[in-house]
Amino acid sequence: MNILLCVNALGAPDYFETELAKLLQNNPAASRYLKEKIGICQVMVGMAAMPSSEELIAEDAFAVTTKLDGHIGIDEEPFKGELPQVKQTGGVQKGKAQIYRKVYTGNMKHCMLAFLGKAKGYTYIRDTYDDGWIEDCVLGAFFEADAAIQAEYQFDETDHQEWIDFIVEAPKNRNLKDAFTRVAADPKTKLSRDNRFVGPALLCMKHHILPFYLAKGIAYGFLYRDESDIASIEITNYVKEHGIEKAIEVYCGLTENEWELKQLIMAQYKEAEKIR
Questions:
Q1: 146-177 pLDDT tens trace
Q2: Closest CA to 44 of 172, 167, 198, 136
Q3: Between 189 and 49, whose confidence is greater?
Q4: Which of 6, 103, 109, 227 is least buried, going by the fewest C-beta atoms within 10 A?
């Protein structure tokens, strides 16, 4: 049996297997079965799902709205048996590394569109497509994160270029109403130390790459406010009460030794306040 974890949570397979093993530790046969017969696989989900329109929900309460060209990639290494022959499904190598690449580059890029788009007064991801400043900033962050990921995990050059092309050259669907409220939901998680922005920024620092645009994305994350999102209200209120430096320490988890990144985010925040 294979368990496919279709999540953007980093380290999910190891966590899942560890917790499952704890539950079975008093049953040697079950523990052996888990080790020999169960594949716990990271899955790369290349699919966007948006809330369905009121018209669709009225017609079908379980209506789902997704992109037409989505796909999923299953980590081949832990998979037991033959991969399923299902359309738009396939195997991938180095799955545990690939999820970091996906979250730190693809998901980060998508979320940054929402953070910057909100500051410019837009509502949907599609609204940002013709904004040259947003595109420059987001692509800058993408290539910073991509360079750090490649330095850390050293993907095959063909695979690396295919990933860049997949993210950068992806068709822009202007019919899709992908709202910032969905994409940027729960910014506490997205701004946390190991997540979409701070994670790749720290990886940049490790490999001597300046995370200039990633710091900008973090700064605009601290400016993002959605009155229906409790986390965004908490963050913006905290910044107002305690200041951006303290907020960075609390929500990004940066230490005193990581002062360079902290100061870079603070500088980007002050600049963002002037132009938003």
A1: 999 999 999 999 999 999 998 998 878 888 88
A2: 167
A3: 189
A4: 227
CB of 202 closer than 8 Å to CB of 265: no
Local confidence band at 109 (pLDDT 50, 70, 90 cut-offs): very high
| Tokens of residue 49, six digits | 């799902």
- Provide the b/e sequence for 46-57 (b: ≥16 CB within 10 Å): bebebebeeeee
Contacts of 128 (CB under 8 A, 6+ apart): 113, 116, 117, 120, 122, 134, 135
- Cβ atoms of 202 and 145 within 8 Å: the answer is no
* Cα dihedral 80, 82, 83, 86 sign: negative
pLDDT (tens digit per residue) in 195-246:
999 999 999 999 999 999 999 999 999 999 999 999 999 999 999 999 999 9
pLDDT band at 51 (very low <50, low <70, confident <90, very high): confident
Tokens linked to 27: 């049953």
Give 25: exposed, middle or buried? Use CB within 10 Å, 0-12, 13-18, 19+. exposed
> Which parts of the chain fold into alpha helices (H)?
12-23, 28-37, 54-59, 95-101, 108-119, 132-153, 157-168, 180-183, 187-190, 198-206, 212-223, 230-242, 244-247, 259-275
Residue 91 sits at φ, ψ, to 5 deg, of -95, 155
- Among 190, 186, 184, 173, which residue's Cα sits nearest to residue 126? 173
- 40 DSSP 8-state letter: E
Q: Residue 203 and residue 104: Cα distance in Å, rounded? A: 10
